[in-house]
Amino acid sequence: MTDRQITHATFCLERHYPPPPARVFSAWADPQAKASWFSGVDATHELDFRVGGHEVNRARRIDGVELVFESWYRDIVPDQRLVYTSTLNAGDELATVSLTTVEFHHEGAGTRLVLTEQGTFLNGNEEPSWREQGTGAWLDALGTFLRIHESGT
Fold it and tell me: Closest Cα to residue 113, out of 123, 125, 100?
């Protein structure tokens, strides 16, 4: 690709979940739980949840191009916050580099989750609006997971 454009964008998403922060954080930290709400049906997911740990999700677009989303955990404060950096590759092309902060706040008996992402979007391989929409969809999937597993496991 000869077009070498760069787009910078920041977005913030907020969700309210009935379980307390410890339960929501656990759904993020447990590899099996996270794979069930974060990863697609035909995708593979690996999670080493610790500071310095690595997460990778591999999937294929409809056109067969492999998408690889990798994250490195930079800061973890149990039940309070996560900070991670990520890349998304579409085939051999680097599509995005991002910094994400996830905050878990007590709100009544439940949790107010605030996710802020700062991204660099390269060469038109991904648009900020696509990332925001996709991130919102998996936060909604987290809500569904929490409802299904309401009793806690």
Answer: 100
What pLDDT is stored for residue 153 in this prediction?
47
Q: Which two tokens stand for residue 103?
A: 């905050």
Residue 114 CB partners (closer than 8 Å, separation 6+) = 12, 13, 14, 102, 103, 105
Give the global pTM. Answer: 0.91
What are the structural domains, with CATH classification, of the chain?
Answer: 6-42+76-86+93-148 (3.30.530.20)
98-128 pLDDT, tens per residue? 999 999 999 999 999 999 999 999 988 888 9
Encode burial over 87-120: b for 16+ CB neighbours within 10 A, e otherwise. bbbbeeeebbebebbbbbeeeeebbbbebebebb
**The predicted structure's pLDDT at residue 145:** 96
